[in-house]
Design a protein that fits this description.
With 329 residues, the protein is an alpha/beta fold. 37% of the residues lie in helices and 17% in strands. It folds into two domains: 139 residues, Rossmann fold, CATH 3.40.50.11190; 162 residues, Rossmann fold (3-Layer(aba) Sandwich), CATH 3.40.50. It has a seven-stranded parallel sheet, with helices on both faces. Strands 10-9-8-11-12-13 form a six-stranded parallel sheet, sandwiched between helices.
């Protein structure tokens, strides 16, 4: 019987918070089933990351660097979600008697596990050589969504005559620091809109412009630091400009039209799959070149509605139950 589960993941300004967010969703489900869940890793001194664990009373402690020391902690089961762990970590844990789940994005990076989870779109269609003959859960049927996302309610559509409201964020912390250039791309469309921008770095760069008359006349822009209210902000937006990271699944579930770019190489596969299947608008990798696409999205509510409808039909929000069923079985 699995009683104690350790979740090994990190967060930080350079790696973002995507690993943490999806692991929090799984932790909520596991704890609801009576298991004791602890996080093991470095949260990068990010107040927002620590707050996610504190709000849910999920303990966190530093993780031993050596696999044998991690195994010595004596967890019944361990979830691994990291690109930087020694590849022998899973095998050492399994030899110590722990059940192991590895969360991966395409490549398992040599980790052995009883269960492999790849929640990316189309993962079930791509052959994957596993380093251990475990069970592979692949595709969006297994997307991990937090309670706060599953509780969020999509806001009614604004009147066609009203300026659309845009949510602009790139991961929970804008680790790549790209928010300012995408704000400028939205402004360059010359189309009326309002916007909420999530970025810890943007305030100093555009605060003077936000108070300038031309900007106020064209759009009201609110800049927020990383926030717990992101699911509600998603649900209230007419369009979300973001990167093709783990938050995309939350947007699809909520039926919010998304326009995507990428800020890390490992997001490009997801970007191409989502855009190629017509589930999100593709902005490419250049904010400056994306202005015509952004202008069309801002001025065509019917186009935005099409993207939102397609996404909502894809993600049913029960992926974490399916993962927990397999993990605890």
């Amino acid at each position: 019987m699995i009683v104690r589960v350790g979740i090994r993941c990190d967060a930080g300004t350079s790696i973002g918070v995507g690993h943490l967010v999806r692991c929090v969703a799984l932790a909520e489900e596991l704890r609801a089933r009576g298991t004791h869940v602890s996080f093991l890793g470095d949260m990068g001194s990010l107040p927002w990351a620590m707050r996610q664990l504190d709000l849910r009373a999920l303990p966190v402690r530093p993780a031993p660097a050596e696999p044998d020391r991690l195994a010595a902690l004596g967890f019944d089961a361990v979830v691994l979600d990291s690109y930087t762990l020694p590849p022998e970590t899973g095998g050492v844990l399994m030899s110590a008697g722990a059940r192991v789940l590895t969360i991966m994005d395409g490549d398992p990076l040599g980790q052995q596990a009883h269960l492999y989870l790849d929640q990316n779109l189309g993962a079930e269609e791509v052959p994957c050589a596993l380093p251990y003959p475990g069970v592979r859960l692949a595709g969006v049927r297994y997307v991990l969504l937090r309670d706060s996302v599953r509780r969020a309610v999509r806001a009614p559509a604004r009147p066609a005559s009203a300026p659309p409201h845009v949510l602009c964020f790139f991961g929970g912390t804008d680790a790549a620091g790209v928010a300012p250039e995408w704000v400028e791309a939205l402004r360059a469309t010359g189309v009326p809109f309002t916007a909420t921008v999530i970025s810890a770095e943007i305030s100093a760069e555009i605060s003077a412009e936000i108070s300038a008359a031309p900007l106020r006349a064209r759009a009201g822009i609110t800049v927020l630091p990383p926030t717990d209210l992101l699911p509600n902000l998603m649900a209230e937006a007419d369009l979300v400009v973001t990167a093709a990271g783990s938050a995309v699944w939350e947007l699809l579930y909520l039926g919010v039209p998304a326009a995507l770019t990428w800020v890390a190489d490992n997001q490009l596969i997801g970007y191409e799959a989502l855009v190629g299947r017509g589930l999100a608008a593709g902005l490419g990798g250049s904010a400056e070149r994306a202005v015509p696409t952004l202008r069309r999205l801002l001025t065509e509510p019917e186009l935005r509605a099409e993207y939102g409808t397609r996404g909502a039909a894809l993600v049913d929000g029960r992926g974490r139950e399916r993962v927990a069923d397999a993990f605890l079985r």
